[in-house]
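fyi for ur records
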Amino acid sequence: LFVKASSFLVFNAWQKNPYPGAANALHFEFLANVNLPANTLITVAGLTGSSTIDTPSLPVTFPANDSDSSASQAVSQAVLPTVATWIQSNGTLVLKTMAESIAGSLLRFSVSIVNPACCQPAPNVFIWANLACFQTAIASLKPTALDPSVVALPGDVMENAPLFVRCPAWKLASIVPSSNRPCTDNNMKLTFQLNVPVLLSASVTLTLSGLGSISLTPSGNLTVGGGVLDQGNWSLATGTLAAAMNQRSVAAYETLWANFTLINPSDYTLYTQRDLRVTVNLCSRTSAGVTTSSITSNVSQISQVFQVTAPQFDSLSLYIGQTTSWPGASNRITVSFLPNLPLAGSDFRCSVVITLTGFSGNCNFGADGTPVALSGSGAAAFAQSGTNLSYANWSVASGGLVAPIVSPLSTFSTTVLSFTLTNGAAGQPSPFFYLSASGVRFQSSSYPLGKNTGTLVATTGIYGSAQGAMYQSISHDAEALRVQAPAFLVRSVSQLLKWPGASNTISIALMANIDLPPGAIVMVSSLDYQDGSSGAPSGAMLLGGAHASWFASSLTASNGTGAWDDVAKVLTLYVQSTMLAGATYTFNFGLVNPRCGQPASPVCVRARGIAAGCARNIIIPRQAMDPGFGSNAPLFVQPPTISFAGLVHSTPFASMSNVLTLTLQSSVRLGFGWFTPMLTLTGLTGSSTPSTSAIPVGSTFGTWSRETGTLVFPMNNQTEGVNYTYSFVLRNSACNQAPPVVSVQLSNLCFAPSAVTPMPFVACNLNGTSPLEVVGAPCGLASSSGLFTQKLVGQSTPYPGCSNTISMSFTVNVPLPAGVAMVVIDFADTVAMDVALINDNAILSGRDSSSFVGSTSVIGLNILDAGFNCSCPGSNDALIFTPAAGDSGSGAAGTYTLVNGLVTSYTITSGGSGYMVPPNVTLGGTVCNRMASLSARMSYGSAASSHGQWNANTKTLSLRPTVDLQPCQSYNLSFTVTNPVALPGGAASASLLQEAQAVTISSTGVVIAASQMAFSSYWLQALSGVAAAQGDHRPMQVQVPRFLVKSIGQSSPFPGQTNKLTVTFATNVRLPSGALIAISNLVGAMGTVRPMNDLLLTNVNFKSLLSTSSGSGTWFDCEKALVTRVGSDLACDGSSSSFSFWVQNPVAPQPCSPVRINITGITGSTAYGAGLQAQITGAASAQSAWLPTPSAGVLMDHDMTTVLSGVQGAVAGDACALRVWPASFLIKSVGQS
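which gave:
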């Protein structure tokens, strides 16, 4: 009998709109745990605050979207009524059921009432039924979506609670002013937003406060745009603007704007930072629950309202300048300034006036208020109303020009204003000028104007005189009202000639900065003569030039003259016609120059008796005139000097006729009727030319003294700065001589002696010689200054065993006379050389070989003393005596002298005899030591030309000239040697049999010390494996014998077939007849059935070892080698030789054979040692070609590129020697008919 209490198990409530005063749909759902009979009263209470009045028939609806199912909606419609009783005072809603509701049935319904006009929190809502013991239930909140017209607050679920009403609040409030310029219309835009709607019927007023009282807009109504507000009431005293929102209703969160215009203050200093606030009269509650009648918010200022820019002028733009600084001139003043604000315009509400002050020292503008016309790019901003004329007004009180601004000034480009005034007559500095403005407060009360410190630009118009343009302005002349003192701006003076004693023309140009009227006097002074001579007679002097007629020598004299005072050196000019300021006046007059050099005279000019404007007795003080440059300066006389004197000769060699050429340049013009100078050369000592009074010098004659070395001759007319030459001939000294010191002197005009510059003369690379310097003539024991200026040596081939041509080219810088001098070429003693000789003489060839001889030929020889230990050679052998220096002897037929072992002079006739006892004798290349009582008798023949004496011991080649060797001439000659194939000491390195050594050249008789010759590749032949880069051009550098080419190929790779093997080889060595060539390691080849037999070769120059037949070689079958010998010597030029022979291929396949080649029995010149032979073999030691082994010789190069012709299926590589294919069918086809 336990019975639960009757109650609603479910009671949920929610709403659709939280806005104040809005129509709001309230939704309810409930579920009872007992049956609810028909006519049961269900009461919902606590819905307080609504504006909906009492009604017994409040509509009840059943929205489908609020039901969980159509079944629930149908049950609710069947049980619940369509109207309910509403009681406003206690917020009660009563429904009477129309049918019984089964326990557990979920019922839903909705009613619409009006929210409170003011915000409130959600009240507690209850439900009960009029059944016995039925319990009251409190509503639970069921969060659901608000009405789509409501802007929901994210996360705020209380807005779903029934009769929860949102409090009004500002979501946005900002203001943007349109202008920060003073005195300017400022269109302000207020942007705002509320979180609740505002109904048109609510009579809401928006108030903006905090604007202050600095605006220039008076109190009154203002038009407010934006579509929400209309008229606004502006109070300047309170700084408040109030406007009704009377245009339309406003949705929540709708962004609204309102714009209105106030005039910015004229004084930027009145601004103080302030807060703006905006208020609307909407009901709200405080956090403490107190009801308020309005809401207020701070207004964000994008830029501060009424904070205006301070007007100012850009300091960099403030300039004032003028067009002329000339005294008494009409002058245009130009002012420039750049404001940061336009200071006028349709939205500018102040009248601004600018004032320019600082005028002094000029004829001012007249009475107070006198208009002054303005021009320039900014003049239009000051145009008078209704005209195009711009004026400023002269203010006596301020001493300045006052100009109201009529139209806006540019803030981007400088405003330029110009006006005209008249300069004062006296000089003055520029005063200080200031620019100020009124009508609006500027950052500074006045602004100093910068001065245009530059020079004046030439301008058009009339300023100061009819000449118009300004000239010769200087720095700061453009500063306003800077006035120059009266002066000659152009005051130049120049002359025509600078030569001593010349008739000269003085030219003058004058231009003043003030008019010189008739009666004014101009004086030119300080025309000084330092030597006290006269320039012209005192008195009237004739003037010339374009403006000579402007002047006279007195007030009553004829025009075109001036008064010359020869004592004071002053020219006085009386002005006859006005000299306009700015015009240049030119004239000239004649004077005779001083006879000696002097600097230019410091000529001055001055003027007096000038009247201009209201001034009288104006003077132009004494001013130095501008003399121009250099020699154009007045009365500058060029000091007469020798600016250059140079002497050069034609030869430095002794006793030769020497042409000496003097080059002379004077600083002044010589001759031309003024004077005839004589030229004296001193110091020409050492010449052998006898004295004479008529030695030719160019086109004239002079006097020559051999004893004093002096030459005197008259000069021709000579233009200044031009080189003139005078040539004469003297004979050189017979001996060496140092160059003498020569000087030159000119007579008649202040000339001082001058040293003559020796001009070097270079003879065949000899250091430059000076005039009358003699070289190459030792004169006794004195040394010569000769040297070999070119000294080249080289060879034709480095191939061993080959004939090699040694070539030489040399040049001397002094003469080498025949019969006196001898050239000695000295090779290193250690170098092995086999020189081709006749007797002891090398046979010479080449262009100049005939200019040299070797030793004297020995015709007969008789050894008279048995103690001589050498056998007597034949008559063709050379006999060389090597006694001590200076030995001499006498014989029956005459005398002879030996120098260094060579007979240098003799009077012995052919067939005659003489006797001597030398220390030792070289006979046929063998040194024969002298025995006691040795004597020899010899007879001499003529020396053979194109020979040079060769000393095999010292490796020297002695060349006796048959004609005088001339300096600067190249001499070329050659001789032949045979290169070694082997040397007793072996090879110098792996690649060189012998390395080259230094070669020197010297001269005796005319002593030239030994110096090293340079190696030249000019004569080197283009041979394989030869290159100058590896030193092969150096004399007697000899390569080690080696192969240049060593290739082998075959004709067939077929197994068991006859195969033609072709050998091609080349060496860098001469291969003599009999040299043996072995081809070995021919693996698998079958030559003959006998172990040793001959094979035919295709080259007849090769022979068998077994017979003398040509075109054959010997086959060694056991060793698989072929040996053949050279028949005739092979060429020594690196060219290739080849031969072919036939063998039978093996049947078994095999790769290429590692074929080798070696050469033995290479013989060479016996001069390097008897029995020496060379070989080319790869074996570690000598390998006999008779018994070749697989390791002997050098591996040959196989033919890996040739594609064999006539061999089907052959490819590159099949020509490789003894490559044998496997046996196979090359063709294997079958068919039927």
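The first strand starts at residue 8 and ends at 15. thats all i got for now
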